[in-house]
Amino acid sequence: MPKKLLNSPVFLIASVAAIVAVAGTLSPKTRSLIEAAADSTSPRAMALSEQWTVASVADGDTITVRRSGETKKIRFCGIDAPEIKHGKQPGQPLGQESKANLQRLVNEVGGKVSVVSVESDRYGRTVAEVFSSKNGVEKNFNEEQLSSGNAYLYKQYAGKCPNKPVFEKAEAIAQSKKLGVWSGNYQKPWEYRKQQRSR
Fold first, then answer.
1. 78 pLDDT exceeds 90?
2. Which whole number is the average pLDDT over 58-87?
3. Among 4, 57, 60, 163, which is most exposed with the fewest C-beta within 10 angstroms?
4. DSSP per-residue letters across 115-170
C-alpha cells in the first residue's frame, strides 16, 4: 500500500470507522476496549487484543501463552491469587483451588484466549486482562477469579486495568457471599510474600 495513502487522514478515519463498526457486534466490555484502542487520544488507548493459546497455568493469576513459536508469561492485571507451593515456601490455603479454577476456565474454551496487554512488570511479564469467548458468551478471567473468591483485588496495581470498576464489583460479590478467600480469615498474598522474604 502506498505510504502516502497510509499517512492520509481519510485513510485513518476510514480505518477507525471500520474498527468501530466491527465493535458493534461485540459485547459492551470488548467493544469499549476496541473503541479505546482505535481512539489514540483515549486515556485507555492500548493495543487491540491478541489471540493466544494457553500453554500452562502457573497459579491463580499467571499463565503462559504461545502463538506462532512466540511465548509470553501473562500476569493478570489487578488481581492477586493465593500463593501455591514454590520450592521451600509452603504456599497458602486455597492456592491450589485458585489455580484449579483458572485451569477449569482455560479448559472450557480449549485453551484459546484473547489477551489485552496493559504493561510489563518488573519481572518482564505482560500484565494483561485475559478474555475467552465461547458460544457468544464472553468471560473476563480476571473478573471470574475475583467473583468466585479465587483472588483478591490488587488495589495498588489495579489502576491501569481497563475493567477496574468491574473488578471492584466482582470482589464485592465474592466478599458478600463469603466465597473462597472470603470464607475465613486468610492472609493476603502480598502480606504472605512479604513475610516469606523477611525469613
1. yes
2. 96
3. 4
4. EEEEEE-TTSPEEEEEEEEETTEEEEHHHHHHHTTSSEE-GGG-TT-TTHHHHHHH
**pLDDT by residue (tens digit) across 150-174?**
999 999 999 999 999 999 999 999 9
Q: Quick check: is 75 catalytic? A: yes
Cα–Cα distance measured from residue 60 to residue 76, given in angstroms and rounded to the nearest whole number: 9
Is 83 among the residues known to form the active site?
A: yes
The active-site residue out of 35, 75, 129, 143 is 75
Q: Which of 12, 162, 7 is nearest to 76 (CA)?
A: 162
The single-letter code of the amino acid at 177 is K
The catalytic residue among 125, 138, 168, 193 is 125
Answer for the pair 140, 128: CB distance below 8 angstroms, yes or no. Answer: no
Q: Which of 83, 129, 143, 171 is catalytic?
A: 83
Residues 33-53: tens digit of each pLDDT = 545 544 434 444 445 578 999
Q: State yes or no: pLDDT of 26 exceeds 70.
A: no
Q: Could you confirm whether 199 is annotated as catalytic?
A: no
